[in-house]
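Researcher: Structure prediction, please.
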Amino acid sequence: RGTQKTVLERKAPPTFDVIIEILEVDKLAIHHDVMSTVDRMLRGASPRPEIRVRTSQGEVEVVQKGESAPVTNGEPRVFETSSHPHTPAAQEYQLSAPREIPPATRIYSYGVSRNRLERAIRELRLPVYITKDLNEANAVIALKAHTRGASARLQDAINRGLPMYVVRSNTYAQVASALRDMFHLPADSTPDEEELALQEARESAERVHEFGEPVELNPQNSYLRRLQHELIQTFGLSSDSIGAEPNRRVRVSKR
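Model: Predicted structure follows.
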C-alpha cells in the first residue's frame, strides 16, 4: 500500500561489533557501534560512521568522527536470580546475586552449544553478544559436565565475581531458561510449553544417540512428560520419570 505497517526491529544482536565499509579506493567508513547503526537505519535515520581517507602522501586522516562504541568500566556486572527457587529455570543453573543488567551484555560460552545460544538470543531478542574473550565477559554460561574441569583462568574469573550460569544439558530449553531469568523475562516470552518440552526431548534424544550418556530433562507436569515419553520412544530409546513433584522429570537413556 506504499505505507509502513509496523516498526522495524532487529531480531538479534549483530554478528560483528565493528563494520568497515569501503566507499572508495582510498576512503573508508567505520561503524564502531553496529547495533546503534542498524537501529538508526531501521528508524529511517542516516548512520554517522567515522570516515577515514588516505591522502596523496600515504597518510590516513579522519575527516569525520563517528558515533562512539559503548564503553564499560571493565568490571563484571551481576544479575538477579529468579525469586521462585522451585521453578525449573531456577534449578538448572546457579548465579551470583545481580542488581543491574548492562545495555549490551557479553556472554562467554563454556561448553554450551553456540547455535542454541545464538538461537535463544535471537528468539528472545536480547541485547547479548557472545564473546570469545573471558576478560570482556559480563557473565558465563557453562555446561555442567564441563565445569568439573574448568580452567584456572575461568575459575579465577568466577572467584572475582563474574556470574556463572550452569545448565545441566545442552538443550535449547535450558539455555533459553537461563537467559530468560537473567533478563527477568516472563515465562511466556518463548514458544508454548508443549512445543518447548517436545523440543527439549527431541534434542536430548539426539544427544543420547550421539554420546550414549543418559540425559535428564527439565521438570514438567504429567501431561507434558507423557508427550515426551511418546516422542522418545520414536527414537528407539528408553525413558523413565524420576524425582518427586513438582520436580518430577524425564530421563532419557539407551535401551
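Model: The chain has three domains: 1-70, 88-189, 193-253.
Researcher: Thanks, that helps.
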